[in-house]
Amino acid sequence: MNSKNTGIRLLIALLISAFVGACKVEYSFTGTTIDYNTTQTFSVANFFNDSGGGPANMGQNFTESLKDYFQRNTQLDLVQNNGDLQFEGAITRYNITPQATVSTTDPNQPDRAGQMRLTIAVEVNYLNLKNEEEDNKKTYSFYQDYDPRTTSLLAVETDLIDDIFENIIQDIFTSTVANW
User: Pairing between strand 41-44 and 48-49?
Assistant: First the structure.
C-alpha cells in the first residue's frame, strides 16, 4: 500500500510538471513584458543636458545610469547602436525654486527660503523595433527638496540628482518595458 501511494504521488508530480512545462508563462521579478525570443538588445544614445543648468557631466551620468538599470533588470544585451529597444533624448529642465519661506523677527531682514526644490525633466524618445505600437516620446520629471538654512546646494546637489535620476529611470522602465 505504501508503494501504491508513492506511485500515485509520482504520477501526480509528473502530470503537474508536464502541465507547468507546457504552459509558456514567463515570470519576471521586475515586471517586464519583454519577449526575449524576439527582443534581445537595447541601445542608449548619449543624453545631452539642454537645460542650461546643473553639473557639466549630468547628461553622461544619466546615460550611464539608464544603461546600468536596464542591464541589472533585464536580460537584454547592451549594444552600441540599433538595439531592438532604443532610447535617446535630453535633459530639458534643471530648476531650483523656493518652496517655503521663513519669516524673520528682524524687520531689517527679508524673509528667506526655508525649503528649496530641485526639479529635473528628461525627454525620452523610445523606439521598439519589434513592436512599433509601443514607440513613444515622453517627458519624465521628478524633484527633491532640501533645506538651504542647514546646507548649501553644492553640498547636496550630487545626492539630489542621483535620487531624481533613480526615480526618473524607474518611471522610464515601467512605462516602456513593463507597460504600466
Answer: unpaired
